[in-house]
Design a protein that fits this description.
The chain has 252 residues and is mostly helical. The protein has one domain. Helices cover 75% and strands 0% of the residues. The chain contains nine helices and no strands. The chain is globular and about 55 Å long. The two termini are 34 Å apart.
Amino acid sequence: MISFFRNLKSDMLKLRRQPLLLVQLLMPLLGIAIFLAYYSFTPYSPIAKVDGYLQVLAVALPTMIGIVCSIAADQESAAGNFQELLTSPVKLLPFLSKLSLLLFLGFGSVLLAFGGFGAGFLYLLKESPYGLKFYVLAACILFLASIFLYVLHFFISLRFGKGASIGLGIAESLLSALLLTGLGDHNWIFIPAAWAARFITIWVQYSGSSADAIPQAIQLDSGIGYCVVGTLAIMVLLGLWICRWEGQNSLE
């Protein structure tokens, strides 16, 4: 455990030499400013505005994950072809440290994007039909549903490079938007890129209702089950792969 925190501290110090923290901070702030400015004069209902904002963030998140994971992996590649990660006495620890930092920064970014928008919508525009607790819980839902994608893109960035990670992220965002339509009904539970957007949509629609009020056709229980099992499975597979990985060159 001491070695893990030592690696985590080292990774946090590396943030000074890469744009990762800046990207995680500026992108949510930019999104908040754009949407609050747009919503200040649009005639849509407050609930529709909140739903639209949350869905846009959920759809854009795979692309953001692809970018931040590629930045982190690219920095390690440039520092010596991943040798700092591979020379640890316990090979798994530095990788877990790097992934934990990405997840921590990702949660902070999502919380800022949701909480900042909620505060602005509630106190500046004075239109929000929900309290801040709604937005905090929405951020937690979005983040937990996206852990699978963080692990996947961490692997893709290490094994195939930043181009593959960013390209996959863009494709996942497009797929996520497509599966929000009727095409995703009964299929979204099998596709990790669709989990976050679908869970957020369900949250907006039924956050004030009891669990019994949610129709079975929405497949919420099945979606949660696939999300939990899929996330645990990919984390185990990543750990097994890391133990065998010898640090091949990252492809651009």
